[in-house]
Specification:
The protein is of the alpha/beta class and 474 residues long. The chain folds into 2 domains: 296 residues, Aminopeptidase, CATH 3.40.630; 136 residues, Aminopeptidase i, Domain 2 (Roll). It is 27% helix and 23% strand. It has 12 helices and 22 strands. The chain starts with 9 loop residues before the first helix and ends in a 7-residue tail after the last helix.
Length: 474
């Protein structure tokens, strides 16, 4: 039998040696999709939790089963010990203590668990033309026209004057009512359809329709609004004033689903950035005896600038790391300098429907594995962390050594647009940081698309990052 390797020409052999040749994951391992299916099923369950509070509530019981204990200040944890820290019900930090001391640095992975949505205004409920609505203020970057005429669900909490917290989650389960933002019929929309896409729907028109049936009392005014308030009082025990101390929003009511005849993709709301959050969550919980302490962070407020006490511009995570190292007398600045961080966030997959937005040589493709973004930002590399050559080399060693195919990614053509991640808010603390995530189609839309193979390989990549014994020598 002739060795097929001998069939290659000298030029082909040289190409194999010298050229960057990414391939579709399906051509590398035909069984990879089958391997990814169990992971995808668990991931879809994770995606059913649509707000940061719901994600933390969902994952806390799971981490306790994995042996994580609530962090206690001053405790000298042993290698292999697992601890968690819950910040205000919106951030979760998980840590597995390494064989080497914290002073030698920590392997950190951060992903955000907030997604674009329609937040309710502080005084949201009103009646117009005998229909009741909730007023909203959109959260994060959205195309407003995408949020009309789709089913919506209600999520959030209200804190009453007596201190009781009332949780709201309505429209996700079979048989529950759903909601929507209405749109103008095409027969009457000639003027609307001549407007630019960013002007066709005004922000103040994003009102969520919640009812049209009047309260039975001829003497009462605004009977439809009153009927809605009466129903809310009977179901949740709340009055209109309680909206002033509430965090409520409307999210797409779509159930995470398999996409495509081959079921190779996941279609769902909120995959930016829950696809990365779940990958790092799985990787951390399955890490047992790492060489270096591993630390996973669920971040909030990324879609609006990472501000506030639960965003990554806050020092909650840095304070935690300082508290963790204080039992050994570590100076936080020394720990940070020796640490490494994955800013786990998605990038835009090339969409053949819009080729003019992408530069193929430096953008990511669906089904080609995790995408590493050396920088994000916008034209001129503004507002970005630009990972150093040493950081990129370090990550290459880990991923290539584990046999994980990965790809490079830039967020579209230069000067076409751009976007940022929390990497810039982490690296400012003198931590070497690089972005890694998965390619996404229809990012920030109510229904986003990812490849199951990419999702699974990202989890494997983060796991290798947490468990690598490769020292940081730069």
């Amino acid at each position: 039998m002739v060795d097929k390797k001998d069939d290659k020409s000298a030029g082909q052999k040289l190409q194999d040696t010298l050229c960057l040749q990414n391939k579709d994951l399906g051509t590398i391992d035909a069984d990879l999709l089958q391997k990814a299916l169990p992971y995808a099923e668990d991931y879809k369950l994770f995606l059913r939790n649509k707000t940061e509070r719901e994600i933390v509530d969902y994952t806390l019981p799971i981490v306790k089963k994995f042996g994580y204990k609530e962090f206690k200040l001053g405790t000298r944890y042993k290698p292999g010990d697992k601890v968690f820290y819950n910040n205000r019900g919106k951030n979760l930090i998980l840590v597995t203590m390494g064989e080497k001391p914290v002073a030698d640095g920590v392997r950190i992975s951060v992903a955000h668990i907030d997604s674009p949505r329609l937040d309710f205004k502080p005084s949201p409920l009103f009646e117009a033309d005998e229909m009741a609505y909730f007023k909203t203020h959109y959260y994060g970057g959205i195309k407003k026209y995408q949020w009309t005429a789709i089913p919506l669900s209600l999520h959030g909490v209200l804190v009453l004057n007596n201190g009781k917290t009332v949780k709201v989650r309505l429209g996700e389960e079979p048989g529950e009512p759903q909601f929507c933002v209405t749109d103008l019929l095409p027969h009457l929309a000639r003027e609307q359809m001549t407007k630019p896409m960013n002007k066709a729907i005004d922000a103040e028109q994003l009102n969520v329709l919640v009812g049209c049936w009047p309260f039975k009392d001829d003497k009462a005014s605004q009977k439809v609004k009153l009927n809605i308030l009466d129903m809310l009082f009977k179901k949740y025990g709340i009055i209109e004033k309680d909206f002033l101390s509430a965090e409520l929003c409307a999210c797409p009511a779509f159930t995470p689903t398999d996409l495509g005849l081959d079921r190779s993709m996941v279609g769902a709301y909120g995959q930016d950035d829950k696809v990365c959050a779940y990958a790092q969550f799985r990787a951390e919980t399955e890490t047992k005896h790492p060489e270096y302490t591993s630390m996973m962070v669920f971040a909030d407020k990324e879609e609006t600038g990472s501000d506030g006490p639960t965003g990554m511009r806050s020092v909650f995570w840095k304070d935690f790391l300082e508290d963790l190292g204080s039992a050994w007398g570590c100076e936080i600045r020394h720990v940070l300098r020796k640490s490494l961080c994955l800013s786990c966030d998605v990038n835009a997959a090339i969409d053949p429907a819009w080729p003019e937005a992408f530069e193929n040589n430096n953008c990511s493709f669906l089904n080609y594995g995790p995408v590493v973004s050396k920088y994000t930002g916008s034209g001129g590399k503004y507002s970005t962390n630009d990972a150093s050559a040493e950081v990129m080399s370090f990550l290459r060693k880990i991923l290539d050594g584990a046999g994980i195919q990965w790809q490079l990614g830039e967020l579209g053509k230069v000067d076409v647009g751009g976007g940022g991640t929390i990497a810039v808010d982490i690296s400012v603390h003198n931590i070497d940081t690089v972005d890694m995530g998965v390619p996404v189609l229809s990012m920030h839309a109510p229904f986003e698309v990812t490849s199951k193979a990419d999702d699974y390989m990202l989890y494997r990549a983060v796991y290798e990052f947490f468990n690598s014994k490769e020292p940081k020598d730069f």
